[in-house]
Amino acid sequence: xDRHPRRPASNNRVKSIIIITYTHYRPAAxxxxxxxxxxxxxxxxxxxxxxRESMNKSIVTRFFLLTFLAVTALxxxxxxxxxxxxxxxNLGTPGLGLNGGSLTYDVTSPGASNPQANLTFxxxxxxxxxxxxCCTDTFTLTINxxxxxxxAFDMGxxxxxxxxxxxxxxEILSTTSYGVNAGGLTQFSVxxxxxxxxxxxxxDYGSMQGLGDEGWGLQNGLISANIDSQVPEPSTMMLLGGGxxxxxxxxxxx
Length: 254
What we know:
Helix content is 34%, strand content 34%. It has 254 residues and is an alpha+beta fold. Helix 2 (39-74) runs antiparallel to helix 3. It is rod-shaped and about 115 Å long.
């Protein structure tokens, strides 16, 4: 009696499974081979790779251009630009002037002065403006909250010149009395720090004895300065323009 009657059948079954499995997966393998060797597929793969490379180059180029523009803008050289401003004349009532009080002017500057700015003005006295005596008329000048001068001048009254305080950079160019009850003129030159933005100038004569007795006024007020400003040179403007043009060209090609 055959002790192993099922061995041949078992071998046949294994062979059948192998044949079925090979037959089942053979079409899929053939399709993959056809795809891999298909010229259209190769072309599409190549185009995708080239597109990725081009996009990467575009990103890198744009990054360097933007970095260049930012560095150029931040490194603009600082130039001194001339700046002038005039203060409106105020002589009050014709022939009588202002009855004491103060004049305030706000001047806006696009940049800070470098070095200091200069203010010149004429202080006008009407009738009997007094210097240092029993009825001293005290004039003060304040710029941006800092008092730069305090004193008194004989401009048609009596008394002598009095200086309570004078800051460095403040110069009295001249002071003249035209005679008793005839008024006078005092001229100033003041060096000060002009700020970027609003600058406030206060000219003050406090309390006076009334128009007809004495009065004052201000004329020929002029501010001149060189201010710091980041104004690009023509060569810098050309570099910035070229960088912007390159960015626009890259965007248009996309």
